[in-house]
Amino acid sequence: MPLISTPTPRRIHHRHPQPTRRGLAALGLVLALALLVGTFAIATGGRATQSRRHDLHHQSIALLESAIQTAQSLGEELESDLRLPVDEGAAVWIDVKVITSDDQPNQIEATLVRNNRPGMSIRRPQRGNS
User: What superkingdom heads the lineage (predicted)?
Assistant: First the structure.
């Protein structure tokens, strides 16, 4: 019996199966790097914001201390509350007043006010008053 030759089935070759894998690997790498850069940017931005808040806090304390020194330089003339402007355009000022007490020496209180809303306050003993 003669052998009949049947054509062998052709193999289907995909042109380049590796580029798909390489593309997915590259996409994964890009996403990982984007996540890393984003995390770094958030951390750096958070530190910068915290540093600005810290500086503003210290500036506010320095302003209040200066207002108390100004009030202490008035001495006994400071009978009523004193309002010291910080920024008239932004409606920011410092209210300074003497706090009297029977059992404690007089104190001077300075309060930072923005838009008629009191904020940070500090108290110091009034000099020359026991």
Answer: Bacteria
Closest to 107 measured CA to CA, from 130, 87, 86: 130
Distance CA 104, CA 119 (A): 25
Residue 52 confidence (pLDDT): 92
In this structure, what DSSP letter does residue 126 have?
P
Beta carbons of 59 and 74 less than 8 angstroms apart = no
Cα–Cα distance, 42 to 48 (Å, whole number): 10
Q: Which residues, other chains included, contact 68 with Cβ-Cβ below 8 Å and sequence gap of 6+?
A: 96, 108, 110, 122, 124
Q: Who contacts 1 (Cβ-Cβ below 8 Å, separation ≥6)?
A: none
Query: Under 8 Å CB-to-CB from 9, ≥6 apart: which residues?
Result: none
Q: At 69, which amino acid appears?
A: Q
Question: For 22-73, what is the HEC assignment?
Answer: HHHHHHHHHHHHHHHHHHHHHHHHHHHHHHHHHHHHHHHHHHHHHHHHHHHH
Looking at residue 107, its pLDDT comes to: 87
Residue 79, pLDDT > 80, answer no
